[in-house]
Amino acid sequence: MEEEPRIGVYVCNCGINIGGVVNVDDVAEYASKLPNVAVARSHLYMCSDRGQSMIKEDIDEFKLNRVVVASCSPRMHEPTFRKVIEEKGLNKYLFEQANLREHVSWVHSNQPEKATEKAKDLVRMAVAKSRLLEPLPQHMVDVKGEALVIGGGTSGLSAAKNIADRGFKVHLVEKTPNFGGKMAQLYKVYPTFDDPQELLNPLIKDVMEHPNIISYLSAEIADIEGYIGNYRAIIREQVEEKEIEFGTIVVATGYQPYDPTGEFTYGNHPNVLTLLELHQLLRDDGPTQGNLVTPAEGKTPRSIAFISCVGSRQNEDTIPEGKKPNKYCSRVCCTGMIATSMEVLEKEPNTDIFVLYRDLRTHGKGHEELFTDFRQTGSTMIRYTDDQMPLVSVTQGSEYPLAVRSYDTLSGMNIEMPVDLVVLATGMIPDDSAAHIASKLHITMSADGFFQELHPKLAPLDSVTDGVYLAGCTQGPKDVPDSVSQAFGAAAKACSPMAQGRVEVESTISVINEDYCTGCGVCQGSCEFSAIVFEDKPDGKRISKVIEALCKGCGSCGSACPSGAITMLNFKDRQLDAMVRAALLEG
Amino acid sequence: MSEKNVLVIGAGVTGIQAAIDVANQGIKTYLVEKSPSVGGHMAQLDKTFPTLDCSACILTPKMVDVARHPHIELLTYSEVKEVTGTAGNFTAKIEKKPRYIDENICTGCGHCAIHCPVEVPSEFDEGIGVRKAIYVPFPQAVPLVYTIDKDACIECELCQNICEAGAVKYDQEPEEIEVNVGSVIVATGYDLFDATNLKNYGYGVYDNVLSSLEFERLLSASGPAGGHVFRLSDGKIPRRIAFLQCVGSRDPEHGMPYCSRVCCMYAIKNAILAKDHIHGGCDTTIFYIDVRAFGKGFDEFYQNAQTRFGVKFVRGKVGEIVEDEATKNLLVRVENTETGELNQEEFDMVVLSSGLVPSQNSSEIGKILNLPTDQYGFFEEASRILPVDTKIEGVYMAGVCESVKDIPDSVGQGSAAAMRASLKAI
Amino acid sequence: MVEVQEMPKEAIDFEPKIIGFLCNWCSYAGADLAGTSRVQYPTNIRIVRVMCTGRIDPQLVLNAFRYGADGVLIAGCHEGDCHYIGGNFRAYRKYLLLREFLRKMGMHEKRLRLEWVSASEGEQFGKVVREMVDDIKELGPSPLGITATGGIVVDEGEIKI
Question: ipTM, 2 decimals?
Answer without folding.
Answer: 0.93
